[in-house]
Design brief:
Helix content is 36%, strand content 15%. The protein has 12 helices and 11 strands. The strands form 2 sheets. Strands 1-7-6-5-4-2-3 form a 7-stranded mixed beta sheet, sandwiched between helices.
């Protein structure tokens, strides 16, 4: 048995996946009477939705492989990266035995997915400057640590994790190390994708929901060793990525300059927003950000949060989150949106 095979939950190692009509015959030409689709078309004008989509998203994966510098069999596509998070837990963690290690404060879905799947979590908080506490992480890693989630840039703090710490974890972890790079397009040179060659237990998550501006379409990516990808494909719902999403994502990849321009604009606005916020008396600290949001420690955070809602400016209240006490998480908006936020804050800044 290979190293990855031995990490997969025993009852899934030889599981027979559902074989869809499009698995058994995958050509595009012919009279298709095999999938019980509606041969007469779709009920909406414009239509063309009556056929099931490609269950393995082959065209999209070919385009992505070229852009990301990986092979197509190293790519899994999910209904948002949230689906990949859930499937990783379901594929690798045995309830009552295995454990997921989290580094709070971090993205909430790791805990929720672990809870849904009845998997216990161990937690090692980040340091005060939101970096990995390597000695404590090392001490917390045990034989049953099947998954470690590292969010980089981290949500809600916004910063990248030190690469050496991630590599140290990869050297000792007995299970998979999942690096969630949802915000990596705002600092693309920092991606750990090149490390996939050296660490078969590394999984990298990315998403079309942030810099690509496609949160509504629900498309997340996992890049990993082909055996990790294979088990995720075996246990996913057969047609998890709808055809429209595949088609639009293909177009987005063909037009990458749009994303690059939007990232530039976001970074310019982030700088301006940070400068303006730092001149407010109520702002106590703005944490360094490598993402499209700022974590801001603010006097009377709860009160400011609710006062902003009154003015129809909605930010995220993180003031009850461990190590984010008194903090609001503010997504970088357009120039006009940021201006409105700042005007409202200035009026409260007495
Ligand atoms: N990871 C992180 C760190 C996130 O912040 C988010 C969304 N807020 C996700 C994953 C989920 O992304 P998706 O829309 O692809 O499910």
């Amino acid at each position: 048995m290979t190293e990855i095979q031995s990490l997969i939950r025993p009852h899934l190692r030889n599981i027979q996946p559902y074989s869809s009509a499009r698995d058994e015959y995958s050509g595009w030409e012919g009279i298709f009477l095999d999938a019980n689709e509606n041969a007469f078309g779709s009920t909406v004008a414009g239509g063309g939705y009556n056929r099931y989509p490609d269950p393995y998203q082959s065209v999209l994966k070919q385009k992505l492989a070229a852009v990301k510098g990986v092979a197509t069999d190293q790519i899994f596509l999910g209904n948002g990266s949230d689906e990949a998070i859930d499937l990783l837990i379901r594929a690798f963690c045995e309830p009552g035995e295995d454990e997921v290690l989290l580094l709070p404060p971090t993205y909430g879905m790791y805990q929720v997915s672990a809870d849904i799947n009845k998997i216990q979590t161990a937690k090692v908080p980040l340091t005060r400057d939101f970096q990995i506490h390597w000695p404590k992480v090392k001490a917390a890693i045990g034989n049953h640590t099947k998954l470690i989630f590292i969010c980089s840039p981290n949500n809600p703090s916004g910063n990248l994790m030190d690469r050496e710490d991630v590599e140290d974890i990869l050297d000792v972890a007995p299970g998979l190390v999942v690096v969630d790079e949802a915000y990596i397009d705002y600092t693309p040179e920092a991606t750990l994708i090149p490390l996939l060659k050296h660490f078969p237990r590394l999984v990298i998550l990315q998403t079309f929901s942030k810099a690509w501006g496609m949160a509504n379409l629900r498309l997340g990516m996992a890049f990993a060793h082909p055996e990790v990808i294979a088990i995720l494909n075996k246990i996913k719902p057969p047609y998890n990525i709808n055809g429209l999403t595949q088609e639009i994502a293909e177009k987005a990849i063909d037009n990458q300059s749009v994303k690059i321009d939007m990232v530039k604009e976001t970074l310019a606005q982030r700088k301006l927003l940070k400068e303006s916020l730092s001149s407010l008396r109520m702002v106590e600290k703005i944490y360094p950000s490598d993402a499209n949001f700022l974590l801001v420690k603010i006097k009377n955070a709860d009160r400011v949060y609710h006062a902003l809602i009154e003015k129809q400016v909605i930010v995220r209240n993180r003031s009850k989150v461990i190590m984010c006490e008194g903090c609001l998480r503010i997504t970088v908006g357009t120039a006009v949106e940021n201006q409105k936020l700042l005007e409202e804050l200035k009026q409260m800044d007495i």
